[in-house]
Amino acid sequence: MTAAPDLTGRIAIVTGASRGIGYFIAKQMAAAGAHVVAVARTVGGLEELDDEIKAERARTGKGDATLVPLDLTDMGGVDRLGGAIHERWGRLDILVANAGVLGTISPIGHVEAKVFDKVMAVNVTSTWRLIRSVDPLLRLSDAGRAIIISSGAAHSARAFWGPYAASKAAVEALMRSWAHETESLPLRVNAVDPGATRTAMRAQAMPGENPETLPHPTEVAERILPLASSGLTQTGMIFQAKHNRWVSYQQPA
Length: 253
Ligand code: NDP
Prior knowledge:
Number of strands: 8
CATH class: Alpha Beta
Largest sheet: 8 strands, mixed
Oligomer: single chain
Strand order of the largest sheet: 3-2-1-4-5-6-7-8
Number of helices: 8
Strand content: 15-25%
Bound molecules: NADPH dihydro-nicotinamide-adenine-dinucleotide phosphate
CATH superfamily: NAD(P)-binding Rossmann-like Domain
Order of helices and strands: EHEHEHEHEHHEHHEE
């Protein structure tokens, strides 16, 4: 287990914080001292997270949360989120773009147009819109950190996972372009392949699999947290949480 970085006083957005990997990243970032802006649609999940963060705060005096119930396909809402953070804090230190959907697992020719569009809207367009909304705020941080949650599917492009694989390849391309644009700044921009993790999305993808054979999202979140540390040097790379290693598909820009 890697030691959690000290995130005291850091302002962090975590999308998809109502359950799964995002929930535990948000919880652990708050425990490390961050003020987490927790985004998702399910208010119950966000409130449960808030209860856990407040209980930890009562014990240790560290961490806090602001809940933002938002459908990330509401692009105006994504724009307003950046504006609200600017007004309240004047900067953003950490972005974890984690929210995602799987779509359906089926041959490409059988994918319904509305399913394809939804996967692209949530996984790609809203991620771009969020990047656009908070890029100026991350540049105002002394050590801005952006963590884009991708998937091994971006590279394996396994049969029947077409829309999801394409969406993750697209966000990795966005991540790399953004990293090139910002490489001379303190801002560090990377992607994460969490590896198969015991969540609702994985159960949807692999209904026959025994979830107990997979790592719990709290373990995966622990491996991802160091990417938010001020000491991180990597940018434009992909961190494979399962193997605890960095890989790069960078070509010279
Ligand atoms: P879950 O399905 O457990 O959680 C997905 C999260 O995304 C939820 O909090 C959900 O919140 C949020 N979300 C989905 N759609 C929207 C939306 N329109 N607006 C706002 N929030 C939304 O998935 P995981 O935790 O498994 O996945 C997290 C990330 O990890 C994803 O990007 C996924 O692609 C990636 N990943 C997961 C792997 C795994 O094995 N689990 C493997 C590789 C990558 P709500 O429904 O409340 O809005």
